[in-house]
Amino acid sequence: MIVSLTINGEPKTATIGGFESLLRVLRDDLGLLGSKNACEQGECGSCSVVLDGEVVCACLVMAADCEGSDVTTVEAYGTGDDLHPFQQAMLDEHGVQCGFCTPGIVVTGIRLLEENPTPTEDEIREALSGNICRCTGYGGILRAFDRLAKEGTE
Amino acid sequence: MTTRTKPRVRGGIGEDVVRPDGIPKLTGNFAFASDLVADGMLWAATLRSPHAHAVIVSLDTTPALAIPGVRAVITQDDVPGHPLFGQEKADQPVLCDGVARYWGEPVAVVAADDPETARRGVEAIAIEWEPLAPVSDPEAAENSDHIFRRINVRRGDLGAKGEVVVEGYYEIGTQDQAPLGTEAGLAIPDGEGGIDLWVTSQWVHIDHGQIVRCLDLPDHMVRCHPAGIGGAFGAREDMSMHVHISLLALITRRPIKMVYDRSESFVGHVKRHSARMWYRHEATPEGRLVRVTAKVILDGGAYMHTSAAVTGNAAFFAVGPYVCDNVELDVVSVKTNNPPAGAMRGFGVVQTCFGAESQMDRLAQELDMEPLALRRLNALEAGQPFSTTGQIIEGAFPTTAIIDALESFPLPPPLESDDPVHLPGGTGLTTPRSAVVRGIGYALSAKNLAFSEGFDDYAEARVVLTPVGAEVHTAAMEVGQGLVTLLQQIARTVLGTGHVAVVWDDTSQIGSAGSTSASRQTQMTGGAVHAAAVALRDKVLDDHGADELREDGAYRDGERVATLEEICASGPVDHWIRFRHPETEEPDENGQGNLHPGYALAGHRAVVDVDPELGLVRVVQIDTAQDVGKVLNPKALMGQVEGGILQGVGLATMEELVIDKGIIRNPTFTDYLLPTSLDAPHVNAVFIEEGDHWGPFGAKGAGEPPTISSTPAVAAAIRQATGKALTRVPILPQDITGT
Hints:
The structure holds 2 protein chains of 2 kinds.
Chain A: E1 2-7, E2 10-15, H1 22-29, E3 48-51, E4 54-57, E5 70-72, H2 85-92, H3 102-115, H4 121-128, H5 139-153
Helix pairs in contact in A: 2-5
Chain B: H1 22-26, E1 42-48, E2 54-60, H2 62-65, E3 70-74, E4 84-85, E5 92-93, E6 99-100, E7 106-112, H3 115-124, E8 126-131, H4 138-143, E9 147-155, E10 164-172, E11 184-189, E12 195-199, H5 204-215, E13 222-225, H6 242-252, E14 256-259, H7 262-268, E15 275-283, E16 289-299, H8 307-316, E17 327-334, H9 349-367, H10 371-377, H11 399-408, E18 437-448, E19 458-466, E20 469-474, H12 483-495, E21 500-504, H13 521-543, E22 548-550, E23 553-556, E24 559-562, H14 564-567, E25 573-580, E26 599-611, E27 616-627, H15 634-653, E28 659-660, E29 663-664, E30 682-688, H16 705-722, E31 728-729, H17 733-737
Helix pairs in contact in B: 5-6, 8-9, 9-10, 9-16, 12-13, 15-16
């Protein structure tokens, strides 16, 4: 079975057996290793991607259901020389430690800011509540949003 | 007289330097062990015991080998060298040796063309078990003399009595490190009978020694490479798949990759020891501790791993940072058929700190004293004998300063919101604000830094000056804690150059850095890099008659006398070092002696909101004071503190592996709860900077203290809100409601 979809703005096709998750196809077939597999149950958000405008756990989405879909992964945002402002703020505020949750946090955080450029702390915490971070205690991640908000008002 | 201002190096100590691996991690380009691939690689999967204790009646791997795409299957019979591995004692078979001693013990490993085929191979293995009764009760194990280590601390006058006596029994459930990255690895055969190995680890050299022994290979034929690690917290201190995939790579002559899934990860690494603790504290009517008596049983599970060292820590830190001259402690770790226990952040101290601090609160209540007033009265300080070991405390030990800082934090405002986000239970539950009671609790902790009890603890590092800057070579594991940044900062500060790269050497290129555990790498590998950089700098200055090294060369009286190119004219200048901390000794038969190279203290104040009717808890705020010696990177330090605290909050309120007759009932992220962004309290921190007697710039390790006393502080706060004894963590809703 062949699935055609758009990933990070580029048309892609993947040949699948039928039961693979979107995460499996992204990582093992398309070589997009940024999305991480930490629980494969939709509990931790390490595999968060934007699927047709919604943040989803790619581990819970059947690749076969993605025909014609538009998928954005962490690889779409920023490069080493040109980070997205949220990535830069995460770097500056030490919102990254081991980094395994980080791609999911980046995807969720940027999508939140696209939908709501000035989120309150409660809105940020709610939006991130599906992305587990075991290292930082979330402080550095929350301060990354604070930093962006301050930069935005300057 | 003129004064010169020395140019300050960019990115030295004390600055909020960002992680050099931050950008690859933020853009999805950082290679974790689970992301590694090699041409022609096979995937491996593991058959595990479905019983906590059982004998293998028959085992036949031929049905698996008959599946197209299955390339090899290994069992214990295939292990060419020593059949056992283990960090403190080789007692665990590489693969099940005919008797499974815990649920999930590896039995056979299949290599196949893809992960699905490997898993089908595992399912096809024909195995017949005869279940045996598991020993799952640690007290029964102790009665049967199934002991890993017993420590009896006897100090002072054991006839001493206090007029005020409080007794308590406490329990701590099994906590899992739950690092986000599961165990993963890649083994590549080198074509000459050897192996290059990348596996999630905290100490590649201790892995290496065990691997070559089990494979019966000379040292140089196995090279363990530091891999990208998705968190550790102790989970990676003992080996997982290391020998399995190495052996399969040797047999198939192809690269072997394996990644545990989350459920497998829960049985694929050691966990925090659950504990049962009986305590008696005796004091004068004024509140001075006269005597502490305790018995502690730690459940070590089926194999030893690091249980002996954990037992030592539980025993020697069973009183806390308090003066007490008469101490009688019986601390034991036992062997059961429960999943093996080992290292987790806090390493034995978490357990007895919960018991001891709960007792201090009970004593304060009995004496009608404020919790911090009792602690202040008994505060132990530098220069005094440590209450359990009698060791005279060297280095900073600022107990009173920690208490002062805790008292100076303002309290958060009262709960004024009806938004369920701010209420216990959150949006999914139904606590009204009127039902909420606020509680405040305190706890202090002392923890040893680096390896203790006479262990020959060292870290090797090499610092190299090149025409473009400096390189730091080490095999110390960066698991997310930020060592990579600190090593750069230390080298920059000493060498005066901003261009410092950290190079991760494999086990054939450099000696051991010791484990990334025991809060030791800042002082140990940091100390090694500092000492190597100082020696290197002094040599360069001597050679060129200079008095200062800067980014662009060596200077004398402010004038450049040699560029870096000139300094390195005959090649890079390097200095290799093996750094050791102050020598320690083994405890005598009474647990006495100079056992610990140093200590770090922490104190926590927890503020909680509780709905006593529904048993729901929200941790509102944690205020902490921590004894860190010297702040090397403020934001990185805060990250360690906040992250450590949240693991302590998790243990206090939600995290427990439910183990029933040896079987883990909740090995998933759906059922083993971890704190989310909605559970994370606001954290305020004060850092006490009294330089320690060893380590770079007086800095102390900072990773473990946040996790240790945060748990008893939260428990104390919930007790204050509810009036309940709450002697077991995690404190679950039913513990509060009594239903």
